[in-house]
Amino acid sequence: MAIKKDGGLAEVIAGQTEISTVGKQGIGLTYRGYSIQDLAAFATFEETAYLLIHGKLPNEPELRQYRSKLAGLRSLPPRLRTILELLPDTTHPMDVLRTGISALGAIEPEEEGRTQADIADRLLACCGSILLYWHHYQASGARIEAETSSESIAGQFLHLLHGRRPSELHEKALDVSLILYAEHEFNASTFAARVTASTCSDFYSAITTGIGTLRGPLHGGANEAAMELIEGYRHPDDAETGILQMLAMKKRIMGFGHRVYSVSDPRSDIIKEWSRTLALDAENKRLYVISERIEQVMQREKKLFANLDFYSASAYRSMGIPTGLFTPIFVLARLSGWSAHIIEQRANNRLIRPNAYYSGPEPKMWLSPDMRT
Ligand SMILES: CC(=O)SCCNC(=O)CCNC(=O)[C@H](O)C(C)(C)COP(=O)(O)OP(=O)(O)OC[C@H]1O[C@@H](n2cnc3c(N)ncnc32)[C@H](O)[C@@H]1OP(=O)(O)O
Ligand SMILES: O=C([O-])CC(=O)C(=O)O
């Protein structure tokens, strides 16, 4: 049996999940039955993470308790701070997270008495601390404290980054972005995390697998690549010319297209609206206008639509977030989805090990070195 050259497991059903549905009819996204539109409009990221990890929306006391549990898990152990300080200042923030979370797995291993949800919550609560501790240390030598008065994970992230409480608008925008990035069925990083979990490896190993897989520009790294592209243009007309040239050279435009969605990414309209709102308030309004022009050109020339990564870029920049932290924010959000999938995989585990179609040589006769050409 031959497989299509472009394989990539496209359209292959590789397992079963109750966590989310991506584009069941070519459109749409739900987390445990709730539409992404409702979640983005009415939920907080903490409610969404609880929904994904615990399987149901929290009631009022559960939510209050959950938020306070997360707020109590932000600080970093001294050994982890030392490890972060030793990383070169040239380290990519995704490598900081991969290393930091791996180190946390050695310092606070998965062991008796800690549930899987406890580890997921700890990671959600301290992921921003790991990243921003390193960020400030490498920038100025400052050893920041992870405690702030901001209650939400989104607020805490912006507070640690900028050293002050964020505006309500920015906190809400980042919160919505975390909801949009939280979960997406069998995307590459989640599938990779499930493969690791299926070998009965530990929770942290499955998460670091996810981080490594998310980093590439065909997946999570696209939000950073999209920003670099957009920022390279001074005017929408330059952007149009530049994109047409790239397409003529058969280059990929990061932030467009999707493996599963064929018409549109339902998350893109939501983040686009936030990006537009944030731009009204931002110093640099040019990025949103240029993004819109690129979107129009891609639709007209290639019938390709913006995915979640594209307008996330301009939205993040309007909140003063440096490009290198874009994909790590995706990690922060996706920790909730990865955790839900690791828990689901473990609950009904069988080693994930597909077959390959062999396309190598027929059996050959062994030759000693002096007989080889
Ligand atoms: C949150 C997320 O992770 S969303 C995904 C983020 N990634 C990106 O934005 C990277 C840019 N996009 C892409 O590379 C692709 O659309 C992917 C990787 C997301 C999906 O890829 P696949 O389903 O494997 O599609 P595939 O790579 O086969 O592309 C099909 C055709 O569309 C073209 N195409 C797909 N995406 C793009 C793009 N962004 N720019 C230009 N052309 C594209 C391909 O060149 C190919 O054309 P061809 O048939 O003439 O060779
Ligand atoms: O589903 C995918 O292939 C990629 C994606 O959009 C995500 O992980 O959010």
Give a quick rundown of the structure:
This protein is mostly helical.
Verbal overview:
With 373 residues, the protein is mostly helical. The chain folds into two domains: 43-216 and 330-347, Citrate Synthase, domain 1; 222-318, Cytochrome P450-Terp, domain 2 (Cytochrome p450-Terp, domain 2, Orthogonal Bundle), CATH 1.10.230. 57% of the residues lie in helices and 2% in strands. It has helices at 36-42, 45-54, 60-71, 78-86, 93-107, 116-140, 153-162, 168-181, 188-198, 203-214, 222-231, 236-248, 266-281, 286-302, 308-318, 326-347; strands at 20-22, 29-31, 34-35. The chain has a three-stranded antiparallel β-sheet. Strand 1 and strand 2 (29-31) form a beta hairpin. Helix 5 runs antiparallel to helix 10 (203-214), helix 8 (168-181) crosses helix 16 (326-347) and helix 9 packs across helix 16 (326-347). The longest helix is centred in the middle third of the chain and has 25 residues, at 116-140. The chain is globular and about 70 Å long. It starts with 19 loop residues before the first strand and ends in a 26-residue tail after the last helix. The site of acetyl coenzyme *A has 19 residues, from helix 15. It comes from Paenibacillus mendelii. Pathway: Carbohydrate metabolism; tricarboxylic acid cycle. It catalyses: oxaloacetate + acetyl-CoA + H2O = citrate + CoA + H(+). Keywords: Acyltransferase, Transferase, Tricarboxylic acid cycle. GO terms for molecular function: 2-methylcitrate synthase activity; citrate synthase activity.
